[in-house]
Design a protein that fits this description.
Radius of gyration: 34 Å
Oligomer: single chain
Length: 941
């Protein structure tokens, strides 16, 4: 009997937690790949779980076992009918269908769209499955089995099924089954679940023994020989509130950790699964059989882990253990805090099974509130991600009081007891205030004192420690450690942690931040650093612009272009007056980088016929690419036609907040408005890029740039085989596709190479790590793809040809290349060009030695760019054979656009499969993959 119920709960939980990442993955592309999608999914699932528990509570409270069984069997067949309709009506004819028409468009709420998508796709089946945990445990109590006195052990079996399903999805199901196949597996599993539930209901309606009296319906007379059970009064409001709070903290922390990980790495099911799996593990442990000393261990471990994380947060300027260790600490802290809360929740469960469904109902309420706090309340109220540290503080409030009788012996005078309580309350407020003042003085005033600097130097010398380590320990570790002395007073402990985090946040507020805005798709910050205005999404720079505070002094104007005669002054005055710094593209759109090269190719091919061809951009950013949009042709330009329009540029953007900041006001960025003033036509298509591109069958682009990132996370659905096929369908016959693949954690080059190889496309990559000291330019990696090499034009040529076409960094080298060609010795070319200034001689038959001018003197005479040439040639020739101008070009400019290397072991990314971990560059992730025998070709080869 227990085995039947355990297997049924195991199957039910497995289906519940298989469908969550599966449906999350299915709707992710419709919501722009935002990390907030999983938070929205969790709110939906927790809300339906609450509805399911409410249904189970009312069903088991109002009807007898047999009637419950019959009613529930009728309810079970409703999702079967829904899935049959999905098979017949759905576009893919699968049991679970996603209605793409519900995807957000324009200013529609993405959160509400996510709720609608989930409700249509899986709402009814998930609701019915979610009723199993409380209902089957109540039914087991009706069976009269000896174990029916305490049916909570079945909850551990339920969570074990959930955990196995969660871990099995990314490791076994997702890599081996397409999404359509996964939905059919789930449907077959649901059919099996109906049969098992029918068997459990039959057992409850026909008990083998006499159930406990507490399992009977209220008002029913206990049967003769019924097992005695002490009735327990209904839970008090304080106890219910405690249940809700203990369930709230793990739920909120789980979503906070998930959002933290998926924002900067990748919004993929596997990173969603890890915190959720650990969340379930805490339930398994808490509701299992654990020794009495476990409470003491977890009650001390959880606050220690919280304090370690707080230390990492407040001392982030001095402590950086690396991405892998940082993520591990976040996850480990979440696990410890969740286990502490769930253990306290399990320990306080009602002994009377009459209150079982009520208990699970309030537990579910806490989980829903935690999800709503992170997914709905926080984005609307908090400008930054404050919900995570706030929940950590609430977790400190949940630390159990492990020291009983803190007011002293029971026989001490009542007045003394009251006095001690009054002192404790005063200290509950006074200690945090004192700690906060001390922390403020340490980090604001002590840090800058000479005597503190001497102390740090002494410690670094005598203790062989780094300066940062000493400062972190003295200024941050000591105040954080002081919090632990108050761990036996949860309110005091929580306030101390809150004060440290509050002081840190107040001091770390950037005075350069001009605006913050938070939406479903992330946190946007507009920062003004001197002459630059920057847009930061999460933790990643998404563009910058030279603002109005930039002014070129008249002396700087004279130095910008050398002027030796009045004619020089006239020749340079015009360009300087016409120069508009705010219309120069910066960051990874710089004219000297890959994007500048793409537009050069577009404007020069076909004798300039494509100069004003229609161009599109996926991802608005700051609108930097608008700088390349040309106005109407001028009369002196080739192919001039009176009345011809300016160039059309279409932006595909999913986040309305970005459009408001960049295109609907000139307060922060003027790239878009400047382009429109020039006469360019700027168009916006709001919504997910793939959906909008699929709709735009009548549009063809000569150049399509894809640069859509949520912070630094990868919208995986924009980098799949199907996505690239769609992009290519929206190009003209000789159109070029450009993919921005810069990423701190994931190496995307082999992924794109594999897709290009599969689709028989010509591809070139430029890893532009050479910022060259140019104002506002940042490193970036771009891949260009086309149907053949001829379409890419100069972009598919050798580096020297590319440099001659659009290289601007070193005019002196370009002059040499034009005169002498890439195969000539660089030394010989310099001697021919500059004579004795770079001359050489032989000394006693040894290798030639340079006797020309020193690099600095050479630069003074022939221009600053030549210093680099002289230094590189002499250094290289002293160590190896003579350098050619071609090799010198690659040394200075890099390989420019060059072919990608296809790694066969990197599997093809599709809408059904994408192994992000295979190409992840986090060392700890690669180490774990090697332990399990998994390859890491994206990094190793």
């Amino acid at each position: 009997m227990p085995l039947l119920f355990a297997v049924t709960l195991f199957l039910s939980a497995s289906l519940l937690f298989m469908v969550q990442p599966m449906v999350g993955k299915m709707i992710l592309p419709l919501l722009g790949g935002s990390p907030a999608v999983w938070n929205a999914c969790m709110v939906f699932f927790q809300a339906l779980l609450l509805v399911g528990y409410l249904y189970a509570h009312h069903l088991s409270s109002r009807f007898g076992p047999k009637k419950q069984w019959l009613i529930h069997m009728g309810v079970l067949f409703v999702p079967v009918a829904v899935m049959l309709v999905a098979v017949v009506v759905g576009g893919k004819h699968t049991p679970i269908a996603v209605a793409e028409g519900l995807a957000p468009s324009g200013d529609a709420s993405p959160f509400l769209s996510a709720m609608a998508l989930l409700a249509v796709a899986i709402g009814v089946p998930f609701f019915v499955s979610s009723t199993s945990a409380p209902l089957l445990q109540k039914w087991f109590a009706y069976t009269g089995h000896p174990s029916a006195r305490d049916p909570y052990f079945l909850y551990a079996a339920s969570n074990a099924g959930s955990l196995i399903s969660l871990l099995g999805y990314p490791l076994l199901i997702e890599p081996n089954l397409a999404v359509a196949g996964q939905t059919w597996v789930w449907a077959v599993g649901f059919g099996a679940l109906i049969l098992f539930i029918a068997a459990c209901g039959r057992a409850a309606a026909n008990p083998i023994g006499v159930p406990p009296a507490s399992a009977k319906l209220a008002g029913a007379k206990p049967a003769t020989g019924a097992l005695t059970a002490s009735p327990e009064p209904p839970p008090s409001p304080a106890r219910v509130l405690k249940w809700v709070a203990l369930a709230f903290v793990p739920s909120s922390l789980m979503l906070g950790v998930t959002f933290h990980m998926s924002t900067d790495i990748a919004s993929i099911p596997l990173l969603w699964v890890i915190p959720l799996a650990l969340y379930l593990v805490t339930f398994i442990i808490a509701f299992g059989r654990v020794p009495a000393w476990f409470r003491l261990v977890i009650g001390n471990l959880a606050p220690v882990m919280i304090l370690l994380l707080v230390f990492l947060m407040v001392a982030s300027s001095y402590v950086n253990p690396g991405t892998g260790i940082t993520l591990f600490l976040h996850i480990a802290t979440f696990f410890a805090a969740a286990l502490m809360c769930h253990y306290e929740l399990a320990a306080d469960r009602p002994k009377d099974v009459t209150h079982l469904t009520n208990y699970f109902l309030w537990m579910s309420v806490g989980g829903v509130l935690g999800g709503l706090f992170n997914a709905l309340f926080a984005p609307l109220v908090f400008p930054l991600a404050y919900e995570y540290p706030i929940t950590l503080v609430v977790a400190c409030l949940m630390v159990p009081d492990l020291i009983r009788g803190g007011d002293g012996p029971a026989d001490q005078p009542a007045a003394l007891t009251a006095y001690k309580r009054k002192v404790a309350r005063v200290l509950d407020l006074g200690a945090p205030v004192a700690l906060g003042i001390a922390f403020w003085l340490l980090v604001s005033f002590v840090h800058g004192r000479p005597w503190f600097a001497q102390m740090v130097r002494w410690a670094t010398v005598h203790l062989t420690l780094r300066d940062d380590t000493v400062v972190a320990v003295l200024l941050y570790a000591v105040p954080v450690m002081a919090c632990f002395f108050f761990v036996d007073r949860p309110a005091r402990f929580a306030l101390c942690v809150a004060v440290l985090l509050g002081v840190h946040h107040y001091r770390s507020e950037d005075s350069d931040i001009a605006h913050t805005e938070r939406s479903f798709f992330g946190i946007l910050k507009v920062e003004k650093h001197g002459a630059l205005t920057r847009l930061v999404h999460g933790t990643t720079l998404h563009g910058s612009q030279i603002n109005d505070s930039f002014r070129l002094h008249w002396l700087d104007e004279a130095q910008a272009i050398p002027m030796f005669t009045p004619w020089d002054t006239l020749a340079t005055a015009g360009p300087l007056v016409a120069f508009r710094p705010g219309e120069e593209p910066l960051t990874y759109y710089h004219r000297t980088g890959p994007v500048g090269a793409m537009f050069h190719e577009l404007r020069t091919r076909k004798n300039g016929a494509d100069a004003r061809a229609h161009v599109a951009m996926v991802g608005l950013g700051t609108g930097s690419v608008s700088c390349y949009a040309l106005g109407p042709p001028r009369p002196w330009e080739p192919g001039y036609v009176p009345g011809a329009p300016g160039q059309k540029l279409t932006f595909y953007e999913i986040d309305p907040a970005v459009k408001r900041l960049v295109a609907e006001t000139d307060r922060y960025f003027t790239y878009v408005s400047s382009a429109e003033k020039r006469g360019a036509k700027i168009d916006f298509r709001m919504g997910d890029a793939r959906l909008k591109l699929r709709e735009d069958v009548d549009r063809k682009y000569a150049l399509l740039l894809v640069d859509a990132f949520s912070s630094d996370a990868i919208p995986v659905h924009l980098l799949t085989k199907e996505a690239v096929e769609l992009y290519m369908d929206r190009l003209t016959e000789d159109g070029i596709l450009a993919l921005h693949i810069s990423n701190k954690f994931v190496r995307l080059e082999p992924v794109v190479a594999r897709i290009a190889d599969e689709l028989k496309l010509t591809a070139r990559v430029w890893n532009d790590h050479n910022e060259g000291g140019l104002t506002g330019k940042t490193a970036s990696s771009w891949v260009v793809l086309a149907k053949d090499e001829q379409t890419l034009g100069v972009l598919a040529k050798p580096a020297t040809t590319q440099v001659l076409a659009f290289g601007t960094r070193n005019p002196a080298l370009i002059t040499l290349l034009k005169k002498y060609g890439p195969d000539v010795s660089a030394r010989e070319a310099m001697i021919r060009e500059y004579g004795d200034d770079f001359g050489r001689t032989k000394v006693g038959g040894e290798k030639p030695k340079d006797v020309g001018l020193a690099p600095d003197d050479f630069a003074k005479k022939h221009g600053p760019q030549t210093k680099e040439l002289v230094s590189l040639i002499r250094q290289f020739d002293d160590e190896k054979e003579s350098m050619t101008l071609g090799r010198l070009t690659i040394s200075l400019f890099g390989p420019m656009f060059h072919p990608l290397t296809v790694i066969p072991s990197v599997r093809l990314w599709t809408d059904d499969y994408s192994d992000v971990l295979q190409v992840m560059m986090i060392k700890e992730v690669q180490w774990m993959r090697k332990i399990f025998g998994l390859s890491t070709p994206g990094v190793e080869e």
